[in-house]
Amino acid sequence: MGKLTVYEAINQMRELSKAGEAFSFSFMSFSDSKQSTEGIVEVRRGRLTTKSAEMDKKNDDIIQPYTDLDILEPRQFYIPSLMTFNGQKTKLL
Questions:
Q1: How many C-beta neighbours within 10 Å does residue 41 have?
Q2: Can you give the pTM of this predicted structure?
Q3: How far apart are CA 86 and CA 6, in angstroms?
Q4: If you ran DSSP here, which 8-state letter would residue 82 be given?
Q5: Which residue has the higher pLDDT, 14 or 92?
Q6: For the chain, how many helices (H) and strands (E)?
Q7: Is the dihedral of CA 2, 82, 93, 22 positive or negative?
Q8: What pLDDT does residue 93 have?
Q9: How far is it, in rounded angstroms, from Cα 39 to Cα 5?
Q10: What is the per-residue pLDDT across 26-49, written as a single tens digit (0 to 9) for each?
Q11: CA 34 – CA 73 distance, rounded (Å)
Q12: b/e string for 55-91 if b means 16 or more Cβ within 10 A?
């Protein structure tokens, strides 16, 4: 089984989110303001959400908001940092 690209995974995640379905994924955290990472974030049950008007326009094309359904909190991640989707590893290109 080959790896999905992060963009193939994002497209599948968007389709599942539209259908109201949850999925698991992981990514490497990164704080642009602190220029640091807290390591790998694992989301057991999540769903992508739409981008809000308040989001930073500078990185709008690479930031993806989501809701962590286990804690019911809105979050976001950098699309290129996506590492897994439903247990399948991803690759950047």
A1: 17
A2: 0.88
A3: 12
A4: E
A5: 14
A6: 1, 7
A7: positive
A8: 83
A9: 21
A10: 999 988 778 888 899 999 999 999
A11: 21
A12: eeeeeeeeebebbbeeeeeeebbbbebbbbbeeeebe
The token duo for 39 is: 């390591």
Per-residue burial over 5-36, b if 16 or more Cβ lie within 10 Å, else e, is ebeebbeebeebbeeeeebebbbeeeeeeeee
Q: CA end-to-end span of the chain, whole Å?
A: 16
Residue 73 host element (H or E): strand 73-78
| Residue of 17, 16, 14, 37 lying closest to 27 (CA atoms) | 37
Rg (CA), the chain: 13
**Strand 23-28 relative to strand 63-68, pairing:** unpaired
- In this prediction, residue 57 carries a pLDDT of 65
In contact, 90 and 4? CB cutoff 8 Å: yes
Beta strands in 1-93, from DSSP E residues, in sequence order: 4-5, 23-28, 40-48, 63-68, 73-78, 82-85, 88-91
φ, ψ for residue 13 (rounded to 5)? -65, -40
